[in-house]
Specification:
Shape: globular
Radius of gyration: 12 Å
Order of helices and strands: HEEEHEEH
Structural class: alpha+beta
Largest sheet: 5 strands, antiparallel
Strand order of the largest sheet: 3-2-1-5-4
Helix content: 25-40%
Number of helices: 3
Distance between the termini: 23 Å
Strand content: 15-25%
């Protein structure tokens, strides 16, 4: 399923991460790198989180100070990717 800069199907972890972002459970800490937090805990697969950001599927809700956590939101491409992905069992 080609998305803006993302040309492969989402794996289970990517779908679960996008669902967490859609549910408002994710934050991004901006600065030198982009770190993702879900339910207040650092995402165990930061490389996957970085791929989702670089692919344009998730982004910070607004600009923050370096290192500040701000809500993560789905982009339009992220919403489309999640809509087209198979549903996951409960979170």
């Amino acid at each position: 399923m080609p998305q803006d800069g993302y040309d492969r199907d989402l794996n289970h972890r990517e779908r679960a991460t996008l669902q967490a972002v859609a549910q408002g459970a994710a934050e991004i800490a901006t600065g030198c790198g982009t770190n993702l937090f879900i339910d207040g805990l650092a995402c165990a697969d930061q490389a996957m989180a970085h791929r989702l950001v670089r692919a344009g599927l998730i982004r910070p809700a607004h600009v923050g100070e370096p290192g500040q956590r701000v809500p993560a939101v789905l982009t339009e491409a992220g919403k489309r990717a999640l809509e087209n992905a198979p549903a996951l069992a409960g979170r």
